[in-house]
Design a protein that fits this description.
six-stranded parallel beta sheet, alpha/beta, 15 helices, 12 strands, globular, 411 residues, binds uridine-5'-diphosphate
Length: 411
C-alpha cells in the first residue's frame, strides 16, 4: 500500500459556495470525530472518479481535525485485469469468473491487507478492488467498523460476479451506494450518498478571462469559434465513445461546422483504456473535426467543460458520473443517457436532456436543439449551476459521510 501525496485544503475556502449552516454542521461532526482515526483504501491514486473524490475529501477532513489516511493498493496489471472484469461483470457484462482470477484477487488483496499496521477506528474501503482486504483488516482492527463505499452501477450485475463479490462482504458493517437501486448486496446497514465535485480544485474553480484564453490556445486546433460538443471520460466501453461519435455525426448533418472533443485519460487501475482509445481514434481518423485529447491537465479539462456548447455523457452504465456535475457546475448543458447517476443530475428539459442509452440519433437531435437555441443553452446553464450548488458540492457529501462515521462509531 502507498499513501498518495495530497494538496492542502482549508474548509474556509468553501464558504463562498456553501451555506454557513452546512459548514457549521461539518465542524460539529468533526468535533465529534476528533479522536477518531479514519482509513480510506482504494486501488488508484489517479484517474477516475474515486481518486478525484479522495483527493479532496481526505485533505478537507485533515483540515477539519479528523485524523484521516488514504492508502492505495499496490498491484500489477494481472490484478487490474481481474478487477476490471469484476467491474464490468457487476455492471452487466463478462465471461464467467475463473479459479485463476480468484487466486490472483485473493493473493494481491491479502498482501496489501498485511501491509496495514497502524491502528484505525474506522475503515472506509472503496469499490470491489478492496473487498478481499476486509477479512484480514477486520481481524487486525476488531473494534473498527468497516464501511464499503461502492461507486459501481449495480442495476444489472452478472450473477457470477455478484456471487464473487458477495463472498467477501461478511466483514462489512455498513455499505454506501450512490443510488438505492444499487443496494443489492446483503450487509447489515446501507446508506445512499450522492458523490460530489470539489468547486475549488483546478478542475472546477472559476477561471479568469486570461486563464481561459490561455487554455483555449492550448486546446488548438480545437476552435471555440465554431460549435463544440465534448465528452470527458476514461476510454472504457461503458462510456460509449462510439455512441457519442454517432450522436455527433447525426448533429453534424444539421450543424456542419460542429466539432467533437473526446477527452479521456487512462486510470491507473484500468488496463483496457489504451486499446479502446486506439479504436476510437482510428474510427475518427478521417474527420478533422473530431479531436481525441488524452491526459489533459485539470486546467484544460476545466476550460474545455466551460467553453463547450454542449457536454455529452452517453454512458451505457454509470455509477454516478462526476463529469456530468463538473459540466453542469460550469453552466454547460448536458445531453446524457438515462443510466446510473446521470438522471440524478440531468433534469430533462431544465439543465440538459436525457436519452435512452442506445439512442445515439436522439442524442444527436438533442445536441442540435441546444446548439440552435442560444437562449435555451443559457437558461439551462443557469439551472445546471443551481442544481449542482444545491446537491452535488463537496461539503454536502462530507456531511453525509461524517454522519455515517459518527453513527457507526456510536458517538
Ligand atoms: N477525468 C480527467 N481526465 C480525463 C478523463 C476523466 O480528469 O481525461 C476525470 C473527470 O474530470 C472526473 C473523473 O475523471 O473527475 C471521472 O469520474 P466519473 O465519475 O465521471 O467516471 P469514472 O471514471 O469514475 O467512471
Amino acid at each position: 500500500m502507498h499513501a498518495p501525496s495530497l494538496p492542502d485544503r482549508s474548509i474556509e475556502a468553501y464558504a463562498a459556495v456553501t451555506e454557513r449552516d452546512l459548514l457549521e454542521r461539518l465542524r460539529e461532526l468533526a468535533d465529534t470525530l476528533s479522536e477518531a482515526r479514519i482509513l480510506h483504501i482504494n486501488s488508484t491514486a489517479t484517474g477516475g472518479g474515486v481518486a478525484e473524490l479522495l483527493r479532496s475529501i481526505v485533505p478537507v477532513c485533515t483540515d477539519l481535525g479528523i485524523e484521516t489516511d488514504w492508502l492505495v493498493m499496490d498491484a500489477d496489471d494481472d490484478f487490474f485485469e481481474v478487477t476490471k472484469a469484476v467491474h464490468n461483470g457487476l455492471q452487466g457484462s463478462g465471461e464467467p469468473v475463473t479459479d485463476e482470477m480468484k487466486v490472483i484477487y485473493r493473493e494481491v488483496t491479502a498482501t496489501n491487507a498485511a501491509e496495514i499496521e497502524a491502528e484505525y477506528d474506522l475503515v472506509l474501503a472503496h469499490d470491489p478492488q478492496t473487498l478481499g482486504m476486509l477479512e484480514r483488516l477486520d481481524e487486525q482492527l476488531p473494534n473498527a467498523p468497516i464501511i464499503w463505499r461502492c461507486h459501481v452501477d449495480l442495476t444489472e450485475p452478472v450473477e457470477d460476479y455478484l456471487a464473487f463479490v458477495s463472498a467477501y462482504t461478511d466483514p462489512i458493517d455498513h455499505a454506501i451506494f450512490s443510488r438505492s437501486a444499487y443496494a443489492v448486496v446483503d450487509v447489515p446497514a446501507t446508506s445512499i450518498v450522492s458523490p460530489s465535485i470539489d468547486p475549488i480544485t483546478e478542475k472546477n474553480r472559476p477561471l479568469e478571462d486570461a486563464e481561459l484564453a490561455a487554455e483555449r490556445d492550448r486546446l488548438d486546433p480545437l476552435s471555440f469559434d465554431a460549435p463544440v460538443v465534448t465528452q470527458v471520460s476514461r476510454f472504457d466501453p461503458w462510456k460509449d465513445q462510439f455512441g457519442t461519435l454517432e450522436a455527433y455525426r447525426t448533429a453534424k448533418k444539421a450543424v456542419p461546422e460542429l466539432q467533437l472533443a473526446l477527452a479521456g485519460g487512462m486510470a491507473g487501475d484500468d488496463p483496457e483504456g489504451l486499446e479502446l482509445y486506439e479504436q476510437v481514434a482510428a474510427e475518427a481518423v478521417d474527420d478533422p473535426d473530431v479531436h481525441t485529447l488524452t491526459d489533459l491537465p485539470d486546467g484544460a479539462i476545466n476550460a474545455l467543460q466551460r467553453l463547450s456548447d454542449v457536454v455529452v455523457q452517453k454512458s451505457l452504465r454509470e455509477g454516478f458520473g462526476l463529469v456530468v456535475a463538473e459540466a453542469l457546475w460550469k453552466r454547460t448543458p448536458v445531453v446524457g443517457s438515462t443510466v446510473g447517476g446521470i438522471p440524478l443530475q440531468v433534469e430533462d428539459g431544465r439543465n440538459g436532456y436525457l436519452v435512452e442509452p442506445d439512442d445515439a440519433i436522439g442524442a444527436g437531435n438533442r445536441i442540435v436543439d441546444l446548439l440552435e437555441n442560444d437562449e435555451r443553452r443559457r437558461s439551462f446553464g443557469d439551472n445546471a449551476r443551481e442544481r449542482v450548488r444545491e446537491q452535488f458540492l463537496l461539503p454536502r457529501q462530507l456531511v453525509d459521510l461524517l454522519e455515517i462515521f459518527v453513527d457507526s462509531l456510536g458517538l
